[in-house]
């Protein structure tokens, strides 16, 4: 088994690209599985100025036929060439409401998605209304869970350097939002005995429908808030990011996996009235058991 097998965060938010574990040659009929739990500090939503500390479930399973589950992604490795990985993928996109993005892996929430009543802004009420409206998602429509279809194509430039591409389609109000995340990953498996480190840098490109879903403000939403203007962002580069993943094999069965990511919104996403801070960070650590 490759020492740099990726462990994905099952509660990753929608704007983080799904992780595809490296191909893991195994005997026919076998499988390799990691399950664990840890803690993570993540932005309340992309562009939020505050982080939340939450439990972090970890799940990754690979079967000898190439099918894998990695966090909220289900995929299938189809390539027979060691230097190339490709295949179809389904990804669960999370819900976003006034509290932010749902990071739970436990299922779809049944709470109400009703819109909040519009309150007019009268002279002399600005400071009070501004305080009430400090939550920029307060009057925004709920973005529901979606199962996104897509695929991945990864290419090994060298045994330690991997170029990854993940494309998903189906997000947004009309289910026509598309996102391509491309990253370069450098895998160091000989840092120290039982330790491996993965460095990554990537960029995300989206179409207008995706950008409008997560960073746009419709006229109805603007009217309800009384403090926002309608905003219709276009497609293009949404963000750039850098990350680090550190895996420590405590024993043949136990692994401590930790990571950190810095994400910078750019272009129309950065200019959204929902964005409080263009640069976000996430950190996590978890203990996983290999079955």
Question: In words, what does this structure look like?
Answer:
The structure is a single chain. With 291 residues, the chain is mainly beta. It has one domain: Porin. 9% of the residues lie in helices and 47% in strands. It has a twelve-stranded antiparallel beta barrel with strand order 1-2-3-4-5-8-9-10-11-12-13-14. A two-stranded antiparallel sheet has the order 6-7. The chain is globular.
Layout of SSEs?
Layout: E1 31-43, E2 51-63, E3 67-70, E4 73-76, E5 84-93, E6 96-97, E7 100-101, H1 126-132, E8 146-158, E9 161-171, E10 177-192, E11 195-206, H2 208-215, H3 219-225, E12 236-249, E13 254-265, H4 267-270, E14 279-290
Antiparallel strand pairs: 1-2, 1-14, 2-3, 3-4, 4-5, 5-8, 6-7, 8-9, 9-10, 10-11, 11-12, 12-13, 13-14
Spatial separation of the terminal alpha carbons: 13 Å
Q: Provide the domain count.
A: 1
Number of strands: 14
Q: Which CATH C-level class is it?
A: Mainly Beta
- The CATH topology corresponds to Porin
Kindly estimate the percentage of residues that lie in beta strands according to DSSP.
over 45%
Architecture in CATH?
A: Beta Barrel
Mean pLDDT: 83
Largest sheet: 12 strands, antiparallel, barrel
């Amino acid at each position: 088994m490759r020492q740099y097998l990726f462990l994905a965060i099952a509660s990753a938010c929608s704007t983080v690209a799904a992780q595809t574990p490296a191909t893991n040659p195994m005997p026919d009929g076998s499988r390799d599985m990691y399950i664990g739990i840890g803690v993570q500090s993540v932005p309340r939503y992309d562009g939020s100025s505050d982080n939340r500390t939450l439990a972090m479930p970890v799940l990754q399973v690979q079967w000898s036929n190439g099918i894998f589950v990695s966090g909220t992604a289900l995929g299938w490795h189809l390539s027979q060439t060691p230097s190339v990985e490709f295949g179809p993928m389904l990804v669960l996109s999370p819900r976003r409401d006034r509290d932010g993005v749902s990071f739970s892996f436990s299922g779809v929430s049944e709470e109400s998605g009703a819109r909040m009543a519009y309150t007019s802004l009268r002279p002399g009420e600005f400071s009070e209304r501004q305080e009430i409206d400090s939550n920029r998602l307060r009057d925004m429509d709920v973005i529901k869970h979606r199962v996104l279809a897509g695929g991945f194509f990864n290419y090994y430039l060298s045994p330690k350097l991997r170029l990854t591409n993940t494309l998903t389609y189906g997000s947004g109000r009309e289910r026509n939002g598309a996102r391509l995340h491309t990253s370069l990953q450098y895998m160091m498996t000989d840092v120290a005995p039982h330790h491996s480190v993965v460095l990554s840098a990537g960029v995300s490109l989206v179409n207008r429908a995706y950008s409008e879903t997560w960073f746009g403000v419709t006229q109805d939403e603007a009217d309800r808030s009384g403090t926002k203007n309608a905003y219709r962002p276009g497609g293009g580069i949404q963000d750039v990011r850098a990350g680090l993943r550190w895996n420590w094999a405590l024993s043949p069965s136990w692994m401590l996996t930790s990571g950190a990511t810095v994400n910078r919104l750019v272009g129309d996403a950065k200019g959204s009235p929902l964005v409080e801070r263009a640069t976000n960070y996430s950190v996590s650590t978890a203990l996983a058991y290999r079955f």
